[in-house]
Amino acid sequence: MLKILAVVAVFACSTAIAVGVSDEDSPTISAELILLPLAMVAEKDRVAILGDKAVVMNAVAAKYNRAQSDSASTLRVVQDPVTEEYGTTDGGILVHLHSAGTLEGLAADYGLTVHHVFSGAPMGVLKAESIEAAPAYISTLRDDSRVISAKLDVSFMKMKAM
Questions:
Q1: 132-145, pLDDT tens digit by residue?
Q2: Which structural domain, as residue segments, surrounds residue 136?
Protein backbone atom coordinates (compact mmCIF):
# COMPACT_ATOMS: atom_id res chain seq x y z
CA MET A 1 0.00 0.00 0.00
CA LEU A 2 2.85 2.39 0.85
CA LYS A 3 4.47 1.72 -2.55
CA ILE A 4 1.24 2.64 -4.31
CA LEU A 5 0.95 5.86 -2.30
CA ALA A 6 4.57 6.72 -3.06
CA VAL A 7 4.05 6.19 -6.80
CA VAL A 8 0.88 8.31 -6.73
CA ALA A 9 2.69 11.06 -4.79
CA VAL A 10 5.59 11.13 -7.27
CA PHE A 11 3.18 11.23 -10.22
CA ALA A 12 1.16 14.03 -8.61
CA CYS A 13 4.30 16.09 -7.99
CA SER A 14 5.52 15.58 -11.56
CA THR A 15 2.13 16.55 -12.94
CA ALA A 16 1.96 19.61 -10.68
CA ILE A 17 5.38 20.72 -11.87
CA ALA A 18 4.42 20.29 -15.52
CA VAL A 19 1.02 21.94 -15.14
CA GLY A 20 2.25 24.65 -12.75
CA VAL A 21 4.34 26.40 -15.39
CA SER A 22 2.23 28.30 -17.87
CA ASP A 23 3.21 30.40 -20.86
CA GLU A 24 2.08 33.50 -18.97
CA ASP A 25 4.49 32.72 -16.10
CA SER A 26 7.45 32.02 -18.38
CA PRO A 27 10.21 34.53 -19.03
CA THR A 28 9.85 36.09 -22.45
CA ILE A 29 12.47 37.30 -24.90
CA SER A 30 12.19 41.05 -25.25
CA ALA A 31 12.30 42.43 -28.77
CA GLU A 32 12.63 45.97 -27.39
CA LEU A 33 15.74 45.39 -25.26
CA ILE A 34 19.34 44.68 -26.17
CA LEU A 35 22.64 44.11 -24.37
CA LEU A 36 25.55 46.49 -24.86
CA PRO A 37 28.89 46.74 -23.08
CA LEU A 38 28.31 48.57 -19.83
CA ALA A 39 31.29 50.87 -20.25
CA MET A 40 29.95 52.38 -23.47
CA VAL A 41 26.40 53.18 -22.29
CA ALA A 42 25.58 56.37 -20.42
CA GLU A 43 23.92 55.77 -17.05
CA LYS A 44 20.74 57.61 -18.12
CA ASP A 45 20.27 55.18 -21.03
CA ARG A 46 20.50 51.98 -18.98
CA VAL A 47 17.35 50.05 -18.10
CA ALA A 48 19.32 47.62 -15.95
CA ILE A 49 22.81 46.23 -15.49
CA LEU A 50 23.52 42.52 -15.87
CA GLY A 51 27.12 41.83 -14.97
CA ASP A 52 29.29 43.80 -17.38
CA LYS A 53 26.40 44.43 -19.78
CA ALA A 54 23.86 47.22 -19.89
CA VAL A 55 20.25 46.48 -20.83
CA VAL A 56 19.03 49.27 -23.11
CA MET A 57 16.04 49.97 -25.31
CA ASN A 58 16.60 49.25 -29.02
CA ALA A 59 15.80 52.86 -29.86
CA VAL A 60 18.55 54.02 -27.50
CA ALA A 61 20.98 51.43 -28.84
CA ALA A 62 20.82 53.18 -32.22
CA LYS A 63 22.49 56.17 -30.56
CA TYR A 64 25.46 53.90 -29.85
CA ASN A 65 25.45 52.61 -33.43
CA ARG A 66 24.24 49.32 -31.99
CA ALA A 67 27.86 48.52 -31.24
CA GLN A 68 26.89 45.21 -29.73
CA SER A 69 29.17 43.19 -27.55
CA ASP A 70 30.14 39.68 -28.59
CA SER A 71 27.51 38.30 -26.23
CA ALA A 72 24.76 40.48 -27.69
CA SER A 73 24.77 38.40 -30.86
CA THR A 74 24.43 35.15 -28.92
CA LEU A 75 22.29 36.30 -26.00
CA ARG A 76 18.89 37.95 -25.76
CA VAL A 77 17.38 39.87 -22.88
CA VAL A 78 14.45 38.20 -21.15
CA GLN A 79 12.11 39.45 -18.49
CA ASP A 80 10.25 37.39 -15.93
CA PRO A 81 6.60 38.52 -16.03
CA VAL A 82 6.08 37.67 -12.36
CA THR A 83 9.20 39.14 -10.72
CA GLU A 84 10.01 41.61 -13.54
CA GLU A 85 13.67 40.58 -13.24
CA TYR A 86 15.89 40.74 -16.29
CA GLY A 87 18.07 37.88 -17.44
CA THR A 88 19.66 36.46 -20.57
CA THR A 89 19.10 33.44 -22.76
CA ASP A 90 20.91 31.84 -25.65
CA GLY A 91 17.61 30.30 -26.79
CA GLY A 92 18.16 26.93 -25.15
CA ILE A 93 15.05 25.03 -24.08
CA LEU A 94 15.49 23.16 -20.80
CA VAL A 95 13.52 19.91 -21.04
CA HIS A 96 12.77 17.46 -18.20
CA LEU A 97 11.69 14.07 -19.52
CA HIS A 98 10.05 10.96 -18.13
CA SER A 99 12.87 8.86 -19.62
CA ALA A 100 16.45 9.92 -20.43
CA GLY A 101 16.59 7.91 -23.64
CA THR A 102 13.93 9.97 -25.38
CA LEU A 103 15.82 13.29 -25.71
CA GLU A 104 17.35 12.60 -29.13
CA GLY A 105 14.04 11.31 -30.52
CA LEU A 106 12.17 14.29 -29.10
CA ALA A 107 14.67 16.69 -30.69
CA ALA A 108 14.42 14.92 -34.03
CA ASP A 109 10.61 14.98 -33.95
CA TYR A 110 10.58 18.77 -33.62
CA GLY A 111 13.60 19.63 -35.77
CA LEU A 112 15.62 20.72 -32.75
CA THR A 113 19.22 19.92 -31.90
CA VAL A 114 20.48 18.45 -28.64
CA HIS A 115 22.77 21.07 -27.08
CA HIS A 116 23.39 19.36 -23.72
CA VAL A 117 22.44 16.14 -21.94
CA PHE A 118 22.46 16.03 -18.14
CA SER A 119 23.99 12.84 -16.77
CA GLY A 120 22.24 12.76 -13.40
CA ALA A 121 18.65 13.27 -14.52
CA PRO A 122 16.49 12.71 -17.60
CA MET A 123 17.02 16.31 -18.71
CA GLY A 124 18.69 18.20 -21.49
CA VAL A 125 18.87 21.45 -23.40
CA LEU A 126 17.48 21.62 -26.92
CA LYS A 127 18.15 24.38 -29.45
CA ALA A 128 15.99 25.75 -32.25
CA GLU A 129 17.33 27.19 -35.50
CA SER A 130 17.36 30.67 -33.94
CA ILE A 131 17.03 32.22 -30.51
CA GLU A 132 13.80 33.95 -31.50
CA ALA A 133 12.23 30.65 -32.60
CA ALA A 134 12.76 28.91 -29.25
CA PRO A 135 9.63 30.17 -27.42
CA ALA A 136 7.36 28.81 -30.15
CA TYR A 137 8.49 25.26 -29.34
CA ILE A 138 7.95 25.43 -25.59
CA SER A 139 4.14 25.05 -25.53
CA THR A 140 4.30 22.21 -28.04
CA LEU A 141 6.98 20.42 -26.04
CA ARG A 142 4.95 20.82 -22.84
CA ASP A 143 2.06 19.03 -24.54
CA ASP A 144 4.25 16.07 -25.56
CA SER A 145 3.64 12.99 -23.40
CA ARG A 146 7.40 12.33 -23.08
CA VAL A 147 7.96 15.72 -21.43
CA ILE A 148 7.48 16.59 -17.75
CA SER A 149 8.41 20.25 -18.23
CA ALA A 150 9.92 22.56 -20.83
CA LYS A 151 11.05 26.13 -20.33
CA LEU A 152 13.38 28.70 -21.76
CA ASP A 153 16.87 28.25 -20.32
CA VAL A 154 17.47 31.62 -18.64
CA SER A 155 20.25 32.99 -16.49
CA PHE A 156 19.11 35.57 -13.99
CA MET A 157 21.89 37.62 -12.45
CA LYS A 158 21.85 40.03 -9.61
CA MET A 159 20.92 43.16 -11.43
CA LYS A 160 21.02 46.78 -10.62
CA ALA A 161 17.77 48.38 -11.72
CA MET A 162 18.12 51.89 -13.03
A1: 999 999 999 999 99
A2: 89-161
